[in-house]
Amino acid sequence: MLTYPAITAFTAGAIIIIQMVLMMYAASGRGKHRQGLGDGGNADMLKRIRMHGNLIENAPVILIVMALLEMGGAGRTLMVIFGAVFVIARIMHPLGLLRSSGTTPLRFIGASLTMLLGLAGGVYLIIIALPQV
User: Which of 32, 38, 90, 126 has the highest CB neighbour number within 10 Å of its CB?
Assistant: First the structure.
């Protein structure tokens, strides 16, 4: 019997709060720059949109991976670490973009950690699922 993926739920709660903050930041940029749609060629607006967009591009699949891992029996400690690293990575990325639209250490580490979590999670899902296929 599958159990409720509480660690994933907790992580999702933190991620949705981050998403709402980034959404409000993008929306405030729309008011500031009087830009209803797109970035209008404005670098600040593009940065705000990408802060929000990058989270939206990554969060759903990582949270699905987490839920499947947790329901598939991955250890509690591993799941807590996975969730914590994901939340930290998703905070680091926009903080890095606040400093510069170019490469920054925070942005690089945030994106790299997210990519590593995705790859590791995908491999682990295959390992868990393979005997049952």
Answer: 90
Query: Does residue 75 lie within any of the structural domains?
Result: yes
Of 116, 119, 115, which is closest to residue 58 (Cα–Cα)? 115
Select from 1, 8, 106, 2 the least CA-distant residue to 65: 8
CATH number at residue 83: 1.20.120.550
Alpha helices in 1-133 (DSSP H): 6-33, 43-71, 76-99, 105-129
Q: Structure tokens of 21?
A: 């903050």
CA distance 12 to 98: 23
- Tell whether 1 is covered by a domain: no
Total number of domains in the chain: 1
Place of tokens 């670490």: 81
More confident residue, 2 or 112: 112
The rounded distance, in Å, linking the Cα atoms of 71 and 73 is 5
pTM of the model: 0.91
Residue 58 forms part of a structural domain: yes
Domain interval for residue 30: 6-132
By the 10 Å C-beta count (0-12 exposed, 13-18 middle, 19+ buried), 57 is classed as exposed
pLDDT at residue 1, as a whole number = 52
